[in-house]
Design goal:
This protein has about 300 residues and is mostly helical. The protein has a domain at about 1-15 and about 35-140. It has 9 helices and 2 strands. It has helices at about 1-20, 35-40, 45-50, 65-75, 85-140, 145-215, 220-235, 245-260, 265-285, and strands at about 290, 300. Strands 1-2 form a two-stranded antiparallel sheet. Helix 6 (about 145-215) crosses helix 8 (about 245-260). About 0% of the residues are buried. One of its GO terms (biological process) is proton motive force-driven ATP synthesis. This is ATP synthase subunit b. GO terms for molecular function: proton transmembrane transporter activity. Keywords: CF(0), Hydrogen ion transport, Ion transport, Membrane, Mitochondrion, Mitochondrion inner membrane, Transport.
């Protein structure tokens, strides 16, 4: 009897639940949007408003006798084996149902927040990549002619080297000319310096010799004094000329004659050697292209 009652109740429940199921054969397809009245009839909220046990509209209290009616024969005939595995599975299912009904919104919000955070990070990374790619694109636009620029630079470099080589062939000549001019200037300065020294020394020697001669010869001293008095009184020198001037002229004449007799060329050679040594020292210090040999002839150096 219990089995028959449970079977009858199950058939009625399934029959009522199937009576409200929509039939696919009656559904029509439209390209345009459904009218608001038709859409409202098929919304889930309307179906949910019917409520009841298994969507039949019956009270949920009917689930209790239905569970007992179905549970007793199922357990009696061992259609469902109650062991540790089924208990664990039922406990897990109950946990999932409780977690879904009690904390489903919180869990969904947690995953949604985490997903939003991950999406924000992804968007931020994508924005950075896009900005970097835009920067690279701008740089590539700026450097799209870089190959041609390098070719132009290479051509200009080759032309510059050609001009430098041409200038390098001429520059040593100008440098050598400047060095020769500088060497001649130094030689002229040394000769002028030597001439001034010799002139000063000769004048000192002549003055000393004439002074000593007049101090030793009273007649010359008296003649010089009379000549000086004549110039002061009459404005004219005495007959016979100025004895002081004559003494200097005689000294230089005697000095020249003595130098000609005693000149063997050694003094000139010594002066020439000293000059060449000084010029070579100047050339070495200035890094000139030539040096002077013993005869004073310039020779190119490596």
């Amino acid at each position: 009897m219990l089995r028959a009652a449970s079977s009858t109740l199950g058939k009625r429940a399934f029959a009522r639940s199937g009576a409200h199921a929509p039939k696919l054969s009656n559904a029509s397809f439209h390209y345009s949007a459904r009218r608001e009245e038709e859409a409202k009839e098929e919304t889930s909220s309307e179906v949910a408003d019917k409520g009841g046990f298994m969507g039949t509209g019956l009270s949920h209290l009917y689930a209790i006798p239905a569970g007992v009616a179905f549970g007793v024969p199922i357990l009696e005939f061992n259609w469902f084996l109650v062991n540790e595995e089924t208990l664990l599975a039922s406990t897990f299912v109950m946990f999932c149902v409780v977690a879904y009904t009690q904390g489903g919104d919180a869990i969904a919000k947690m995953f949604k927040d985490e997903g939003d955070a991950m999406l924000a990070l992804q968007h931020e990374a994508e924005d950075e990549i896009i900005a970097k790619m835009e920067e690279n694109l701008a740089y590539m636009k700026l450097t799209e002619n870089i190959v041609q620029d390098y070719q132009d630079i290479l051509e200009l470099t080759g032309q510059s080297y050609e001009k430098l080589n041409a200038a390098g062939a001429i520059k040593p000549k100008h440098v050598l000319k400047a060095q020769v001019e500088k060497m001649l200037t130094v030689i002229a300065a040394e000769e002028a310096n030597a001439y001034d020294k010799a002139k000063t020394a000769l004048m000192v020697e002549a003055t000393d010799a004439v002074t000593a001669k007049f101090l030793d010869d009273k007649a010359l001293k008296k003649a010089a004094l009379d000549n000086a008095m004549s110039k002061l009184t009459t404005g004219k020198a005495m007959a016979g000329g100025d004895p002081v001037q004559g003494a200097f002229v005689k000294f230089f004449s005697d000095k020249s004659a003595a130098a000609k007799k005693a000149d063997d060329g050694s003094e000139q050679k010594e002066a020439r050697a000293n000059m060449i040594m000084k010029m070579n020292a100047v050339a070495e210090a200035e890094g000139m292209y030539f040096r002077l040999d013993d005869k004073g002839t310039p020779k190119m150096v490596a």
